[in-house]
C-alpha cells in the first residue's frame, strides 16, 4: 500500500500523461486547427522559445514583483487590522461595512479605477494585490483570536501577564495556523489580482501577454502565459504549505506526544 505522501506525488505524475493523451486525441478526433489548439509538444516548444529567446522572463519578473510586494504589504495591513478588529467590537462595527463593500465589489471593476489613480505602472497592480490579500488575512486572524478560550485569558490575568505577554504566548501561537492558512489563500488571490490589473492596463507582465496574445490571435502566447501563471501559482502554494509545516511543527510534535 502506498502512503499518503507517495500518493500525492505519484497521482499527479500519472495524471500528466493522461491529460496529454486526451489533449492529442481531442485534436485528432475533432480536427482542431493549430491556431485554436496546438499540439502539446508545439506549445512546449513555443513556451521554451518565449522564455529563452523572447522577453517572457522580464514579464514574469514584473508579475512576481507585483505579487511579492503586494502580498507583503497586504499581510501587514491584514494582521494589523485583524488584531484591532478582534480586540474592539466598536471598531469592527465602524470599519467592517466599508471593508465588506470594497471586498464584494468585483476586482475587475476596481482595476480601471486603480489604474486611473496610480497609473499603468506597478503601483496600480500592487494596490489591487494588497486589496485582495489583506481581507482573508484579517478575517482569519479575527476568527482565530476570538475563538481562544476565555479561560486561557483568565489564567494569564491570574498570572499578572502583560498585554505583550498575552500576545506573544497566547494570541500569536493560537492564531498562527489561521494566519498561515489565510496567507496560502491570499497568495493564489494575489496572482489573480495582479493578472486582472495587467489585463486591464499595463506595459508588461503575464496578464499583459495574455491581452497581447488575444489581440494578435496568438494562441501559443496565450496558452504559454496561462501555463506559466499556473506553474507560479502552484509553486507559491507549495512553498506556503512548506512554511506552514515548518512553523507549525510544534503542534504535530505535541500531538505525537499526547498519542
From TrEMBL:
Localization, UniProt: Cell membrane
PANTHER family hit by this protein: ABC TRANSPORTER PERMEASE PROTEIN HI_0355-RELATED, ALKANE SULFONATE ABC TRANSPORTER-RELATED, MEMBRANE SUBUNIT
ABC transmembrane type-1 domain: residues covered: 60-240
Transmembrane segments: 9-27, 67-86, 98-120, 126-148, 178-201, 221-243
Family to which this protein belongs: Belongs to the binding-protein-dependent transport system permease family.
CDD domains: TM_PBP2
InterPro entries in alphabetical order: MetI-like
UniProt topology in membrane: Multi-pass membrane protein
Protein name as annotated: ABC transporter permease
Organism encoding this protein: Clostridium mobile
Amino acid at each position: 500500500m502506498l502512503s499518503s505522501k507517495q500518493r500525492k506525488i505519484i497521482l499527479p505524475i500519472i495524471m500528466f500523461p493522461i491529460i496529454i493523451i486526451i489533449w492529442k486525441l481531442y485534436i485528432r478526433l475533432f480536427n482542431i486547427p493549430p491556431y485554436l489548439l496546438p499540439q502539446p509538444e508545439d506549445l512546449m516548444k513555443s513556451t521554451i522559445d518565449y522564455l529563452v529567446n523572447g522577453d517572457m522572463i522580464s514579464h514574469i519578473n514584473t508579475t512576481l514583483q507585483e505579487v511579492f510586494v503586494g502580498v507583503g504589504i497586504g499581510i501587514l495591513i491584514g494582521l494589523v487590522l485583524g488584531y484591532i478588529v478582534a480586540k474592539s467590537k466598536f471598531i469592527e462595527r465602524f470599519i467592517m461595512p466599508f471593508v465588506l463593500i470594497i471586498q464584494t465589489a468585483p476586482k475587475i471593476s476596481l482595476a480601471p479605477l486603480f489604474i486611473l489613480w496610480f497609473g499603468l505602472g506597478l503601483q496600480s497592480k500592487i494596490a489591487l494585490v494588497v486589496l485582495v490579500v489583506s481581507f482573508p488575512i484579517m478575517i482569519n486572524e479575527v476568527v482565530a483570536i476570538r475563538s481562544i478560550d476565555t479561560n486561557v485569558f483568565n489564567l494569564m490575568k491570574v498570572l499578572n501577564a502583560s498585554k505583550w505577554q498575552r500576545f506573544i504566548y497566547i494570541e500569536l501561537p493560537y492564531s498562527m495556523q489561521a494566519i498561515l492558512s489565510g496567507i496560502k489563500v491570499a497568495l493564489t488571490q494575489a496572482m489573480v489580482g495582479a493578472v486582472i490589473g495587467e489585463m486591464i492596463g499595463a506595459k508588461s507582465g503575464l496578464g499583459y501577454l495574455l491581452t497581447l496574445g488575444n489581440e494578435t490571435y496568438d494562441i501559443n502566447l496565450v496558452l504559454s502565459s496561462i501555463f506559466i501563471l499556473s506553474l507560479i501559482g502552484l509553486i507559491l502554494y507549495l512553498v506556503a504549505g512548506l512554511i506552514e509545516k515548518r512553523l507549525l511543527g510544534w503542534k504535530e510534535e505535541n500531538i505525537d506526544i499526547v498519542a
